[in-house]
Write a structure and sequence with these properties.
Length: 237
């Protein structure tokens, strides 16, 4: 029997220029998650679907996360046409992607989000993915830079956005990620402040049902880990 290829091309209409375009996906039945880091960075056996989440129109340069590609309003279409398409050189992003090609695609998505002045939660999500790609490359300097961008955008999202909307990042996961990112950036006091807010929320009977058991357990473990780091650091000095 012929081996089924892990990746294949699918068709979609670009909502900005109305071109029929192709983008590459990974077959769901070939996806095998091996492990995840504490900030949800995934590791796969075989083809990594994360590399293909950034969808770019080769004709006009519009780019978005695969889940939001078709969701763009008419005002943002004008911004993309004016600021991105006018400078775009046509090129294709279909087919197998290296980490560097994925980085290029995600940075085009980030450029689009900044041009459209999109939701901070969406910008944070893309910055996280860029940081993870640098982590795969063991490029800690650039990883740190994009974790910092992600952190700032998650904090803005937490204070400015309605995180109760269906299908969006919820406020409790957002609290956890902020605490986790502070820890990764070795800002331990800030990390414990944000994690303790989540633990306090769980103590509130009205909020408790909205927080998953797994999230609160992970948060408590992380909180203790940060506390231990701080205690060990104090002993050294």
């Amino acid at each position: 029997m012929a081996q089924i290829k892990a990746i294949y091309n699918s068709k979609i209409v670009c909502p900005v220029c109305n071109s029929n375009i192709e983008y590459t996906k990974v077959r769901s039945k070939t996806i095998r998650l091996i492990k995840q880091d504490s900030d949800f960075c995934p590791y796969y056996e075989g083809e990594n679907p994360l590399l293909y989440e950034a969808v770019i129109c080769p004709e006009c340069g519009y780019g978005a996360h695969v889940t939001t590609f078709s969701k763009i309003n008419r005002y943002d279409k004008v911004k993309v046409s004016k600021n991105i398409t006018s400078k775009w050189h046509k090129r294709s992003f279909v087919g197998e992607r290296t980490i560097d090609q994925a980085l290029e695609a995600f940075k085009i998505v980030l450029l689009n989000l900044n041009t459209m002045e999109s939701l901070k939660s969406e910008t944070a999500k893309i910055c996280m993915r860029i940081a993870w790609l640098y982590r795969y490359k063991e490029d800690s300097e650039n990883e740190k830079k994009f974790l910092e961008y992600a952190l700032q955008n998650y904090k803005d999202a937490y204070s400015e956005e309605d995180l109760t909307e269906e299908g969006k990042l919820d406020e409790y996961t957002c609290l956890y990620i902020i605490g986790e990112l502070y820890k990764r950036l070795e800002l331990y006091e800030e990390s414990t402040q944000w994690l303790s807010r989540l633990i306090m929320s769980y103590a509130d009977p009205q909020q408790k049902p909205k927080i998953s058991q797994r999230l609160i357990e992970t948060t408590r473990d992380l909180y203790q880990e940060v506390k231990d780091i701080v205690a060990a650091t104090k002993e050294e000095h």
